[in-house]
Amino acid sequence: MYSQLTLKKDQLGIYYYFGIIQLSGGLRVSEVLNIKAHDLIPYQTIFIKGLKGSQSKRVYVPECEYFIRKCLRSNLEPFKGISRFMVYRLYKRLGFVILKGNGTRNAVTHSIRKQAIKELHASTRNIKDTASAIGHKSSKSTEYYVKR
Q1: Of the candidates 90, 79, 64, 75, which has an alpha carbon nearest to the alpha carbon of residue 32?
Q2: What pTM was estimated for this model as a whole?
Q3: Of the candidates 104, 36, 102, 112, the residue with the CA atom closest to the CA atom of residue 75
Q4: 2-146: which CATH number, 3.90.230.10, 3.20.20.80, 1.10.443.10, 3.40.50.300?
Q5: DSSP string, 62-111
Q6: How far apart are CA 46 and CA 67, in angstroms?
Q7: What is the domain partition of the chain in residue ranges?
Q8: Fewer CB within a 10 Å sphere, N or C end of the chain?
Protein backbone atom coordinates (compact mmCIF):
# COMPACT_ATOMS: atom_id res chain seq x y z
CA MET A 1 0.00 0.00 0.00
CA TYR A 2 2.90 2.32 0.77
CA SER A 3 4.26 1.86 -2.73
CA GLN A 4 0.83 2.50 -4.27
CA LEU A 5 0.59 5.77 -2.36
CA THR A 6 4.13 6.82 -3.25
CA LEU A 7 3.70 6.04 -6.94
CA LYS A 8 0.61 8.25 -7.12
CA LYS A 9 1.83 11.01 -4.78
CA ASP A 10 1.46 13.79 -7.38
CA GLN A 11 -2.06 12.69 -8.32
CA LEU A 12 -3.27 12.21 -4.75
CA GLY A 13 -2.34 15.61 -3.32
CA ILE A 14 -3.43 15.88 0.31
CA TYR A 15 -4.76 12.31 0.22
CA TYR A 16 -1.17 11.10 -0.07
CA TYR A 17 -0.41 12.56 3.37
CA PHE A 18 -3.69 11.16 4.68
CA GLY A 19 -2.74 7.63 3.60
CA ILE A 20 0.86 7.88 4.81
CA ILE A 21 -0.27 9.09 8.24
CA GLN A 22 -2.87 6.35 8.45
CA LEU A 23 -0.38 3.67 7.41
CA SER A 24 2.41 4.95 9.70
CA GLY A 25 0.25 4.78 12.80
CA GLY A 26 -2.17 2.01 11.88
CA LEU A 27 -4.91 4.60 12.36
CA ARG A 28 -8.61 4.55 11.70
CA VAL A 29 -9.86 7.00 9.07
CA SER A 30 -11.75 8.84 11.82
CA GLU A 31 -8.53 9.32 13.83
CA VAL A 32 -6.78 10.93 10.85
CA LEU A 33 -9.80 13.13 10.10
CA ASN A 34 -9.77 14.23 13.74
CA ILE A 35 -6.22 15.70 13.52
CA LYS A 36 -6.14 19.44 14.22
CA ALA A 37 -3.35 21.97 13.59
CA HIS A 38 -2.37 21.99 17.28
CA ASP A 39 -1.88 18.19 17.13
CA LEU A 40 0.99 18.64 14.69
CA ILE A 41 4.37 18.67 16.38
CA PRO A 42 7.46 19.97 14.58
CA TYR A 43 10.01 17.35 13.57
CA GLN A 44 7.69 14.94 11.80
CA THR A 45 5.39 13.92 14.64
CA ILE A 46 1.62 14.03 15.08
CA PHE A 47 -0.33 13.62 18.31
CA ILE A 48 -3.27 11.29 17.70
CA LYS A 49 -6.22 11.40 20.07
CA GLY A 50 -7.48 7.90 20.74
CA LEU A 51 -11.02 7.22 19.61
CA LYS A 52 -13.32 4.26 20.26
CA GLY A 53 -11.48 3.31 23.43
CA SER A 54 -7.98 3.54 21.95
CA GLN A 55 -5.17 5.25 23.81
CA SER A 56 -3.75 8.53 22.52
CA LYS A 57 -0.29 8.33 20.97
CA ARG A 58 2.36 10.11 18.95
CA VAL A 59 3.01 9.00 15.38
CA TYR A 60 6.34 9.68 13.72
CA VAL A 61 5.80 10.48 10.03
CA PRO A 62 9.00 11.70 8.33
CA GLU A 63 7.40 11.64 4.87
CA CYS A 64 4.99 14.36 6.01
CA GLU A 65 7.45 16.90 7.43
CA TYR A 66 6.78 19.48 4.70
CA PHE A 67 3.03 19.02 5.06
CA ILE A 68 3.21 19.32 8.88
CA ARG A 69 5.34 22.48 8.72
CA LYS A 70 3.03 24.06 6.15
CA CYS A 71 -0.04 23.38 8.30
CA LEU A 72 1.70 24.72 11.41
CA ARG A 73 2.90 27.90 9.67
CA SER A 74 -0.55 28.62 8.29
CA ASN A 75 -2.48 27.25 11.30
CA LEU A 76 -4.43 25.04 8.90
CA GLU A 77 -6.64 22.14 9.88
CA PRO A 78 -4.90 19.43 7.82
CA PHE A 79 -7.89 17.52 6.50
CA LYS A 80 -10.73 20.01 6.80
CA GLY A 81 -13.40 19.36 4.20
CA ILE A 82 -12.53 15.69 3.71
CA SER A 83 -15.12 13.12 4.70
CA ARG A 84 -14.71 9.41 5.30
CA PHE A 85 -16.84 8.83 2.19
CA MET A 86 -14.32 10.74 0.07
CA VAL A 87 -11.53 8.58 1.51
CA TYR A 88 -13.61 5.44 0.90
CA ARG A 89 -14.12 6.30 -2.76
CA LEU A 90 -10.43 7.07 -3.26
CA TYR A 91 -9.22 3.88 -1.56
CA LYS A 92 -11.72 1.84 -3.54
CA ARG A 93 -10.49 3.41 -6.78
CA LEU A 94 -6.88 2.63 -5.79
CA GLY A 95 -7.83 -0.98 -5.01
CA PHE A 96 -7.18 -0.87 -1.26
CA VAL A 97 -9.23 -3.84 -0.12
CA ILE A 98 -8.70 -6.92 1.98
CA LEU A 99 -10.19 -10.14 0.76
CA LYS A 100 -11.78 -12.45 3.29
CA GLY A 101 -11.25 -16.19 3.16
CA ASN A 102 -14.47 -16.66 1.18
CA GLY A 103 -13.34 -14.14 -1.48
CA THR A 104 -15.60 -11.28 -0.41
CA ARG A 105 -14.18 -7.80 0.05
CA ASN A 106 -13.76 -6.22 3.46
CA ALA A 107 -13.87 -2.61 4.71
CA VAL A 108 -11.93 -0.52 2.22
CA THR A 109 -11.17 2.30 4.65
CA HIS A 110 -9.94 -0.15 7.28
CA SER A 111 -7.63 -1.97 4.88
CA ILE A 112 -4.66 0.33 5.57
CA ARG A 113 -5.12 -0.07 9.33
CA LYS A 114 -5.23 -3.85 9.03
CA GLN A 115 -2.14 -3.91 6.85
CA ALA A 116 -0.21 -1.64 9.26
CA ILE A 117 -1.12 -3.78 12.27
CA LYS A 118 -0.11 -6.99 10.51
CA GLU A 119 3.24 -5.49 9.45
CA LEU A 120 3.92 -4.15 12.94
CA HIS A 121 3.13 -7.50 14.51
CA ALA A 122 5.35 -9.28 11.99
CA SER A 123 8.26 -7.10 13.11
CA THR A 124 7.63 -7.25 16.88
CA ARG A 125 6.19 -10.78 17.17
CA ASN A 126 4.70 -9.67 20.48
CA ILE A 127 0.96 -9.06 20.68
CA LYS A 128 1.23 -6.78 23.73
CA ASP A 129 3.86 -4.56 22.06
CA THR A 130 1.74 -4.38 18.92
CA ALA A 131 -1.37 -3.50 20.95
CA SER A 132 0.50 -0.77 22.80
CA ALA A 133 1.92 0.74 19.60
CA ILE A 134 -1.49 0.79 17.91
CA GLY A 135 -3.21 2.18 21.00
CA HIS A 136 -5.42 -0.77 21.83
CA LYS A 137 -6.20 -1.07 25.52
CA SER A 138 -6.69 -4.80 25.16
CA SER A 139 -4.47 -7.19 23.23
CA LYS A 140 -7.64 -9.11 22.29
CA SER A 141 -8.52 -6.27 19.89
CA THR A 142 -5.11 -6.59 18.28
CA GLU A 143 -5.43 -10.37 17.99
CA TYR A 144 -8.50 -9.82 15.79
CA TYR A 145 -6.30 -8.08 13.19
CA VAL A 146 -3.31 -10.38 13.49
CA LYS A 147 -5.02 -13.77 13.36
CA ARG A 148 -6.97 -13.10 10.18
Answers
A1: 79
A2: 0.77
A3: 36
A4: 1.10.443.10
A5: GGGHHHHHHHHHHT--TTTT--HHHHHHHHHHHT--EE-TTS-EE-TTTH
A6: 11
A7: 2-146
A8: C
